[in-house]
Amino acid sequence: MLSAKRLQPTSSLTRSIRQTARTPARSAASPPLRMISVVSTVESVPRGTGTPAPSLYQRIRKVLTRDLLVTLAMGQVLSLLICAISLTSKYLADDLHANTPVFQSFLNYILLFLVYTTTLAVRQGEGNLLAILKQRWWKYMILGLVDIEANYLVLKAYQYTTLSSVQLLDGFVIPVVLLLSWFFLLVRYKAAHFVGAGLCLLGIGCMVGADILLGRQQGLGEQKLFGDLLVLGGATLYGISNICEEFIVKNLSRVEFLGMMGLFGSFFSGIQLAIMEHKELLKVSWDWQIGLLYVGFSGFMFGLYSFMPVVIKRTSATSVNLSLLTSDLYSLFCGIFLFQYKFSGLYLLSFVVIILGLVFYASSSTYVVQDPRVYKQFRNTGSQLANDPTQLRPGVPEPSVTYTSLGPEPGDELPVRVD
């Protein structure tokens, strides 16, 4: 067995051991002296030689790992939940004339309250509901307001602008999440991440273009500028809510986030419902169909809110929002069968481009700088923290960085061949 020590940078190391077999007494008739030579050679192989180049199939297998496929699948589950939410909302608003978006959100927050807030209430220690409220109640109050108004602004925008504008401008959440992750979560991205995000946005543009060509300009569009501003405001609030959610589920707990959202969300949405939507609620013609749709909507929303923190903790808020871009396409595909929408090949192209962008984004890992002082030393892949005693003062914690990479790290052992 070869030792794990690095070989010296010589072209060949040769070690010869010669042993001479001698007889105790040689005579004239004795055979000539025989020499036995054992030669052991270990050669270092120059980098790039000795191993064949990986095939296309091997390269694809290296990119499409099991973890990547699981991540993509989890993101698409979230998209399907949003698709189901959109379909139930459309049936309630268009077919049954129940325009109650605040009431629908209120039902979801009540479910979160019953499940997660009560779980916090029966906990012991620092994870107890009262202990959390004493420490950071005002932060969750602001977060609850942000989440409620994000949903309200986007739903309200449908009354003033077109469906295509909502779908296109809703993608504004992507740059918002990227910027907030960079400055507040200290996430550092690579070129592959920006390429992937750009491809996903290109896919959304392709979908909107197909809608325009097919004449699917649903929405009043009478005050289009005001409606567009509502979408941009809602997308910005969505980005803020998602970044806060990522920080909480990765540093505190998923149950704490959902419990606080249930508490403050139900409180403020209840007040908003009583002020703005009580008349609309009285106009609803209640029957079993409407009741079933409300139950279905609440169940899908509860599933979305419960499962999204799991995916965000595994990936990031940016990755989740990129995955959610396919939800509009799922709604369109369902609309082809349920509402007789016209089909366009651009929809399939848009779906393929978005999935390709997701693969690009998820195939490369990000790294999180835990202290801004070290970022300049980690701009180049593989650089290491300088051992400069003048930069570290006694009593000051050493800056740290969390860095992950899927590629080989500099300093790995050279491949060897044993002959």
Automatic annotation (TrEMBL):
<protein>
    <recommendedName>
        <fullName>Solute carrier family 35 member F1</fullName>
    </recommendedName>
</protein>
<dbReference type="InterPro" id="IPR009262">
    <property type="entry name" value="SLC35_F1/F2/F6"/>
</dbReference>
<dbReference type="GO" id="GO:0016020">
    <property type="term" value="C:membrane"/>
</dbReference>
<dbReference type="InterPro" id="IPR052221">
    <property type="entry name" value="SLC35F_Transporter"/>
</dbReference>
<feature type="transmembrane region" description="Helical">
    <location>
        <begin position="68"/>
        <end position="87"/>
    </location>
</feature>
<keyword id="KW-0813">Transport</keyword>
<keyword id="KW-0812">Transmembrane</keyword>
<feature type="transmembrane region" description="Helical">
    <location>
        <begin position="225"/>
        <end position="243"/>
    </location>
</feature>
<keyword id="KW-0472">Membrane</keyword>
<feature type="transmembrane region" description="Helical">
    <location>
        <begin position="137"/>
        <end position="155"/>
    </location>
</feature>
<dbReference type="GO" id="GO:0022857">
    <property type="term" value="F:transmembrane transporter activity"/>
</dbReference>
<feature type="transmembrane region" description="Helical">
    <location>
        <begin position="255"/>
        <end position="276"/>
    </location>
</feature>
<feature type="transmembrane region" description="Helical">
    <location>
        <begin position="167"/>
        <end position="187"/>
    </location>
</feature>
<feature type="transmembrane region" description="Helical">
    <location>
        <begin position="347"/>
        <end position="369"/>
    </location>
</feature>
<feature type="transmembrane region" description="Helical">
    <location>
        <begin position="320"/>
        <end position="341"/>
    </location>
</feature>
<comment type="function">
    <text>Putative solute transporter.</text>
</comment>
<feature type="region of interest" description="Disordered">
    <location>
        <begin position="389"/>
        <end position="419"/>
    </location>
</feature>
<keyword id="KW-1133">Transmembrane helix</keyword>
<feature type="transmembrane region" description="Helical">
    <location>
        <begin position="107"/>
        <end position="125"/>
    </location>
</feature>
<feature type="compositionally biased region" description="Low complexity">
    <location>
        <begin position="20"/>
        <end position="30"/>
    </location>
</feature>
<dbReference type="InterPro" id="IPR037185">
    <property type="entry name" value="EmrE-like"/>
</dbReference>
<feature type="region of interest" description="Disordered">
    <location>
        <begin position="1"/>
        <end position="30"/>
    </location>
</feature>
<comment type="similarity">
    <text>Belongs to the SLC35F solute transporter family.</text>
</comment>
<feature type="transmembrane region" description="Helical">
    <location>
        <begin position="194"/>
        <end position="213"/>
    </location>
</feature>
<feature type="compositionally biased region" description="Polar residues">
    <location>
        <begin position="8"/>
        <end position="19"/>
    </location>
</feature>
<feature type="transmembrane region" description="Helical">
    <location>
        <begin position="288"/>
        <end position="308"/>
    </location>
</feature>
<dbReference type="Pfam" id="PF06027">
    <property type="entry name" value="SLC35F"/>
</dbReference>
